[in-house]
Design brief:
The structure is a single chain. By secondary structure, the chain is α/β, with parallel strands linked by helices. It is built from six helices and 15 strands. The chain has a single domain, classed as 4-Layer Sandwich (Metallo-beta-lactamase, Chain A), CATH 3.60.15. It has helices at 16-19, 68-77, 96-99, 114-121, 133-136, 229-242, and strands spanning 3-15, 28-39, 45-47, 58-59, 62-66, 88-90, 109-113, 143-147, 151-154, 157-161, 170-176, 179-183, 201-204, 210-213, 248-249. It starts with a strand and ends in a 13-residue tail after the last strand. 45% of the residues are buried. The structure holds zinc ion (ZN).
Length: 262
């Protein structure tokens, strides 16, 4: 049985409309970049490798605080881990804020979906800014494992293909003493993507920005960045077939910081 720890490695700022489709594009919101430690009795497993250090405050055009090797080491140290100690690294997808520090996991088997790999090296036009081949191709010299679909990588840990946000995004299903949890990666950025507000909602984000959200009368609201909305909706129902809604952990929700699941 496992425990799941989302550890903040950086903060990234983007228009609200990036976190959910048709949201405001002129209002900015700041959210966390997490690396996830899955603690069990056996192997050391990490999901996602964080973002690089910003140049003049930006990474790929997005304002970023933290990031890079030092922040990754600081984050993992909260779970008494170093990247060199990790046995398995799962990369949910190869966007720049999930794959940047994978090269530091020198002793890990690295899991990426084959579809994601192909798409990252020849991305759809609107995704050219979100993939960086210089952080992807060096992984070929590591212990890279390109998988096809749903695969068990350890007792009680399964990779679940959830295409839509990208061609080969994978979630991670983790067995815990409170049932199956699903790390959804950027399939859901925040809880708003699968618990959309039914009343107008105002909240203050991590950077103190006031954000207003209008009610949305649909059960799932896609992220503003995606490759295929029909596939994205299919993947929502696939996610629900793996874990109950309350056990799905979105990729960038601020409320997860400092928590341990279950
Ligand atoms: Zn992404």
């Amino acid at each position: 049985m496992y425990k799941i720890m989302p550890l903040k490695q950086a903060e990234i700022t983007a228009p609200v409309g990036v976190t959910f489709m048709l949201g405001h594009m002129r209002v900015l919101t700041t959210g966390p970049v997490y690396v996830w430690v899955i603690e069990g009795d056996g192997e050391k497993i990490v999901v996602d490798a964080g973002i690089e250090e910003p140049q003049n405050g930006f990474v790929h055009g997005f304002p970023v605080k933290g990031g890079g090797e030092k922040s990754l080491r600081d984050a993992l140290s909260k779970a008494d881990l170093k990247p060199e100690d990790v046995d398995k690294l799962v990369i949910t997808h190869l966007h720049f804020d999930h794959a940047a520090n994978a090269k530091l996991f020198t002793n890990a088997r690295i899991y990426v979906q084959k579809k994601e790999w192909k798409s990252a090296l020849n991305p759809p036009m609107h995704y050219r800014q979100t993939y960086d081949s210089s952080m992807i191709t060096p992984l070929e010299d590591m212990d890279l494992c390109l998988v096809n679909g749903d695969v068990e990588i350890a007792d009680g840990i399964r990779l679940i293909l959830l295409p839509g946000h990208t061609k080969g995004l994978q979630g991670v299903a983790v067995e815990t003493e409170k049932g199956t949890y699903l790390l959804a990666g950027d399939h859901f950025y925040t809880y708003f993507n699968f618990f959309p507000p039914k009343q107008p909602l105002e909240f203050t984000d991590m950077a103190g920005n006031k954000i207003e959200i209008q009610p949305l009368q649909i059960p799932f609201v896609p992220p503003g960045l995606h490759v295929d909305l029909s596939e994205w909706y299919d993947s929502c129902f696939k996610a629900l077939s793996i874990a109950k809604k309350a056990n799905i952990l979105p990729g960038h929700d601020p409320s997860l910081e400092g928590r341990v699941f279950p």
